[in-house]
Amino acid sequence: MLSTIADYTRLTTDLGKSMTQVATQPDVSRDTDYFLSHIGNVKTIDDFLKDYRLYSYAMKAYGLSDMTYAKAFMRKVLTEGVSDKDAFANKLSDTRYREFATAFNFAANGDQATSTSAATTGTATQYVTQTMEQNAGDQNEGLRLALYFTRKASTITNAYQILADKALTQVVQTAMGWSSMISSSDIDAQAKMITDKIDLTDFQDPTKVTKFVQRFAAMWDATQVQSDTSTNPALVLIAGASTSASLDTTMLTTLQNIRFNR
């Protein structure tokens, strides 16, 4: 039985303990030790990009592992920094690049860029968080999405930030019961749909964020059960029409207990 809500509650009830368990895993501990003991030796962007172990660690910490290969792109992100509103990172819709350039702010701090708390312990914390979410996703993609949304929610100030992030978009669409097909519609229409139905200021309230994530988790689990049932001939033959009716009743009951109020 799927239990995204139960797993989410277990991990977030004592987040510090959950983070410590991940941080002390041998591979995570080893990579973090290397990063913290060597990052201070990096004085230039070239130094940073040449040490693959440091660079890839930092990229994973900010959720950019899939762009580790794009060194020319990342060089531009780091070279221009974030101080100028027209800087490359500030023009990108994906805020992860701005976060990365802020943490490793060579443009503003020069050879001291890697000695800040953001570049050192801040990045290490981000790495552990990313690893925890990745591990969760290996078991349950819905749990990874729930954890990610919880972490990013307070940074959301407009609908376009949601739409620029595939994971955030998936959480919102699932929680609201919207088909993923709406992603092919006009971007402004999608943004209006979000702001018409969701008060984004609620995402500054941890209690309301938790309620929204619980709604997502309930919808996610219900959708996965439906999918598994509909694609398994044996289950279809055994369960028949009563399975769908029972599932609908269960889902509605759960959602009634996790109302997301504007």
UniProtKB/TrEMBL annotation:
What organism is recorded for this protein? Bradyrhizobium betae
Pfam families per record = DUF1217 (PF06748)
What name goes with this protein? Flagellar biosynthesis protein FlgF
What are the alphabetically sorted keywords of the record? Answer: Cell projection, Cilium, Flagellum
What InterPro entries does the database record attribute to this sequence?
Answer: AGR-C-984p-like_sf, DUF1217
